[in-house]
Amino acid sequence: MLSNQLFDVFFKTIRDCIWFQIFPLFLFLATISVAIATVFIVRKMKKSTSPTEEYFTGGRALSWPIIGGSLLLTNLSTEQLVGLNGDVFGDKALVGIAWEALAAFAMIATALLFLPPLFSKWLYYNPSIFGKRFDKMTRSMVRVCFYLAM
C-alpha cells in the first residue's frame, strides 16, 4: 500500500513539474534547429565534381582514424555490446568473441592488400568492378540484383 502511495506522489510530482511540460516543446525546437542548421551547412558546401568518389571514399580527404573508426562503428551494434558479452559470461570463455577480435586483422588486410589495387583503377563499388572485369551486361545484372535485394 505504501509503495502505491509513493508511486502516485512521485508521478504527480513529475507531472506537475514545469520541465516535464516544457520538454516536448524544447525537443521539437531542438529538432527544427538541427534541421535548419543542416540545410544552411549543406548549401554552403562545395558542389561535387565526382559524386561517386566522394560518396564512397569521402573525396580522399578523410584521414585513416576517421575511416577506421567508421569501419569499427559500422560493425558495432547491440548484438556486440550485449549479446556477445552475455555469451562470454554464460560460457565462461572468450571463444564467443574470437571471430569478432580477428575481424580487425581482416579489416587491416583489406585496407592494405585488397583495396589499393581497386582504388588505383578507380573502382569504388561492386557493379563497377564487375563491369571492368566482365562487360556492361554483367554490371547491369549485378546492379539490378543489388537493387532488388534492398
Helix and strand arrangement:
Elements (H helix, E strand, L loop, with lengths): L1 H15 L1 H27 L6 H7 L6 H11 L3 H14 L6 H23 L5 H8 L2 H14 L1
Helix pairs in contact: 7-8
List keywords for this structure.
single chain; 150 residues; mainly alpha; 8 helices
Number of strands: 0
User: What is the molecular shape?
Assistant: extended
Indicate the mean pLDDT: 76
Task: Supply Rg.
Answer: 25 Å
The largest sheet, given as strand count, sense and whether it forms a barrel, is: none
Low-confidence stretches: none
- Rounded to the nearest angstrom, the distance between the terminal CA atoms is 54 Å
Strand content: under 5%
Helix percentage: over 70%
Count, helices: 8
Can you describe this structure?
The radius of gyration is 25 Å and the shape is extended. It has helices at 2-16, 18-44, 51-57, 64-74, 78-91, 98-120, 126-133, 136-149. It has a domain at 69-150. The chain is 79% helix and 0% strand. By secondary structure, it is an all-alpha fold. It has eight helices and no strands. 1% of the residues are buried. The mean pLDDT is 76.
